[in-house]
Amino acid sequence: MRAESPGPQHEWLDDDAGPVVRPYTLTGGRVRSAADGFDLVAYVLAEAAVDPAVHPELHPEHRRLVALAARPVPVAELAADLDLAVGVVRVLLGDLLARGLVAVHQPTAAAYLPDDDILKAVVSGLRAL
Amino acid sequence: MDSVRYDRTGSGPRIPLALKILIAGGFGAGKTTLVSALSEVRPLQTEEVLTGAGIGTDDLSGVEAKSTTTVAMDFGRITINDDLQVYLFGTPGQDRFWFLWDELAFGALGAVVLADTRRLADCFPSIDYFEQRGVPFVVGVNCFDGARKFSLESVRQALDLDPDVPLVLCDARDRQSGKEVLIALVEHVARQRGEPVPAA
Question: Which of A62, B24, B104, B124 is the most exposed place for a label (fewest CB within 10 A)?
């Protein structure tokens, strides 16, 4: 399906599609991705064994995401670093996921329902700031 | 802290635990200021793009149907240790962005509702939202210069807060003051679980 591939092919957009949202020109008009459900604080980590250079179809923004994710970085922080909308970053991350260039780690149950030890660590960490 | 569980990815780098705290309140209540005061990184903004469809607002009348707007969300980071990070998200102020709140609120540890005593009613929607969804929250009364001085009790009455919801005075510009508000929130979360956090 054409809409699956990133790149500058926009010819399927017709008048009915309306004006293309500028930030989404980068995604070829795609607004949904495999990474859609990813939490703002899901951590993205590049797969060290895979070289993005083998995927010439990727945009510079894709490569910047891979570079930034050399250490675990949350989705929201990637969006801020690239100065892109979160929705756009999710689409780009979906491309990278599909190529096995990154792994995305959803927050664990411990993040949603942190236990007493974690809450204590947060309080003492805040006091020490 | 060896009893704290962290997600690990085989032999790769450890994935930290990220806790999400929302900073809510009416427009101009000091959300951006508080996030900036607390964040260890430069104030970051992330944006969500909205399509015109589905936004119930008259702001877009006369604009093409598929027109868009962006919502900036402030966010900041506080590193507790290598394995534990707190992310602060300032919620979009306008009512028409409520649907974004659902994503922000999902999995959040809790929320700080900033109240401006000059416009106390502005924080009612935030309080309603967190009450209805059972998200633990504290109310921080932002003491603006020249703001009318109210007693905390009169503010509590005006906000019709449950007796167990902490209400604290704060100065959103001041890091120490902001820290105290976050500590009040985390202690409130712990109390709700029936596990009081002793003084460190």
Answer: B124
